[in-house]
Every structure is written in C-alpha cells, then in structure tokens.
C-alpha cells in the first residue's frame, strides 16, 4: 500500500467496529481516560503497561495512527516510510491491556468527570490525562487559513507533496517566465524550528524533483519569512542558528522583520521596515504559530490557572490545581515555575511521570514531582543532514548529525518491536546508501 493509501486508512469509517462492546463503566470500575494520542498520551499508556499497572485504561484519538511529528520531514522527503513514522495505535498497544477507541471528543465535563464522544459513546472516568496538543494559530491574518498549507500531520505532508509535485509539473511546461517563477517559489512563513527544518528540507528536495523533470534546479526558490530579526529566536535550537541553513542545494532566502499582512492564492503580502511588499509564490506554508486546543479553552478552569495563551497550569506533579484527578502535559499544559519547551523529549518524560503517579495513586502512595532533563537539541538540515547539540556542549552536524538525530528519535519510537523494526529498516537504508558509492567506484576501476 502506498503512503497516501496508508494515511487514508485512518478515516473513522471503521469506528463502529473498533468501538463495539465498549460501555461506560460503573463507579467501581471507572477507567483512566487518556485523551489524544500524541507523545504524552501514548507514552503514559505505554508506561502504565510497562509498570504492570492494573488500572483499566482507555486511550481515545480521532486518528488510527500515531504521528511521530519530528520525523515528518523524512516522511515528506521519502527518507522514511509511512509505517515507520505513522504506526497504528492497535499495533503499538497490542497485548497491552489498554483499550484504544478511534473517535472524536465532543465534550469534557470536569465536574461530572465525564467525556462524551461524537459517536454517542460516553465515559465516566476515575482519572483523566489531557494532552490534546495545539492547533495552528493564524493571528487572524487575512486569507491565511484559506490559502496556506499547514505542516503538522501525515495528511499535511501528503497534501504538501502533491501540491509541490503539481507545481513542478506545471513549471516544467510553462512558457511564461513569470508564471514559471511563481510556480517554483515556496514561501515558508515562520522561522522557528518547524519553518527552518521544512525550508532546509525543501531547498534540497525540490531541486532533485525538478531536475528529474528536466527543469533547471537553480530556478527553485525557497523563501523563509519571519517577523523577528533572527531565525530560531527564543527557540531551544537557537544555538544552531548559524548552522541551520548553510550549504543547501539552493540557498534559502531569508526575509527577516517581515510582518505578513495577507495571504492570497499565489502571493504573500507583508510589511518590511514599514514598507508594503508582495512575494509571488504558488506554495505558501504556514508554520508561524500554534493556538491552544478549543477543547482546552472550553474547560471550566479559572483564568488564574491558565497562562496568557490559555494553556492549563499544572502542579509539579502535573495535576490541575482545582481538579487533582486530572493530569495534563504536552502543548496544552505549563508549569509556571518550570516552563519547558514543547518537544518530544519533554512529552516522553511527562508521560512516564504521569504513569508513575497514576500507579502511585492506585497503590495509595505519595506522588512524585516532575523532573525533566533536557539532553540537547536536534535540527534537520536538509536531506540526510542534521545538527545535534548534545547537552548544550557539543555540536555535531552533517551526515553524522543526521545519524544521531534519527537514531535518537527511533529510540523513542513506541514499543520495542516497532523500535527494532523501524531501526533495522532505517539502518539498512543508510548502510545501503553508504555502500552504493563505494561499489560504484570499485566497478569503475
């Protein structure tokens, strides 16, 4: 099955069969509900299984597949396969004793400890784990939601791939130079980690695709627009700023201090140094910001227990102050005394902590505060290249940085079986690519 077919199989058409036989439990057997299937939620479930916790647990997500977001760039570029980046929840939770329900969440009632799903199912819970993540934030910029592409999910990667290939095909046959220029220009809005990694990947990937269509790869233009003065400003990867975009197949054009004012079908309007400008581009990708999930905004949590973005403040044990039976982590929660970046390594550790505290509750023991350890930063820098800063001391870049980055993420992949399978497949590909040039040289001699 191709990549698009695999992701399409995540449609909730099989919802009724997957939910068959599930019923809300009575007060004595109310389950722990885990809402959402991102890093924090999934690793909470997996750590509960690893600890042999006897709590009945239900994980609910609208998708069939877990999305390993840090590797979406490898998915886009076909450096990794869909099954490696987007494994099924049923596979990941096989024989775990944890029930997976593919459904969408309609309402969350913290006072009644009840969650209603769009299918009509509802659950009364004993404990709740909230880590619903965030949504794309558009700053109310005119036309952005309608005319730009997001890059957050497997479906987003598929849609972007199709759009880019269509543009390259049209450009290869376009006789009008201006039309061809527009078709070959990609505007990435937002120069945080996501924007920088995507721009670097496309600056290597698109020339390769266009050359295969007998086009002039040097006509490809990738533009990174940012409101601030520097890329990766305020980002945990800021130390890698100088390394981030160097030596790409085509250079990434940086338009700093550029405030986007509108996005139209084939161009971006922005102000730079107070002067209005227009950038023609057939592909416009928005990576500028995120917004708090609507379900999190709707919760009856006092403003004093939210940050300025509407995220939930949590105690050191990752509980809601007014609702101690609710744990929260990931993008939708923040510990104001110890704010942390919304990264995979943080979410992974939060999942382990929440699972440990849930087990402690079931055994009548005291809870433990969260101690998150940041082990460094990883940044993708185009095809088969990355930068890794280990413990904020040692920077490794290029091919070796790429090996460290992917191996680190593969180590986090859920369950030993999937980890082993994905790692083996990826290492086989890497070794093949290293051996192939050697064989070519030997055959030449």
Written account of the structure:
- By secondary structure, the chain is of the alpha/beta class.
- The strands form seven sheets. A six-stranded mixed beta sheet has the order 3-2-1-7-19-18.
- Helix 3 packs across helix 12 and helix 8 (154-173) runs antiparallel to helix 9.
- It is globular.
- It has helices at residues 3-8, 15-19, 39-50, 72-76, 82-85, 89-92, 144-147, 154-173, 177-183, 193-212, 294-297, 344-362, 398-412, 416-444, and strands at residues 32-35, 57-61, 99-102, 105-109, 114-117, 122-124, 127-130, 134-136, 185-189, 221-225, 252-255, 258-263, 267-272, 275-280, 283-286, 290-292, 312-313, 319-320, 323-328, 333-334, 376-380, 386-390, 394-397.
- It has three domains: 3-136 and 291-362, FAD/NAD(P)-binding domain, CATH 3.50.50.60; 144-288, FAD/NAD(P)-binding domain, CATH 3.50.50.100; 376-444, no CATH class.
- Residues 1-28 and 434-445 have low confidence and may be disordered.
- It contains 14 helices and 23 strands.
- Strand 22 (386-390) and strand 23 form a beta hairpin.
- It starts with a helix and ends with a helix.
- 35% of the residues lie in helices and 22% in strands.
Mean pLDDT: 85
Highest-level CATH class of the largest domain: Alpha Beta
CATH hierarchy: architecture of the largest domain: 3-Layer(bba) Sandwich
Strand content: 15-25%
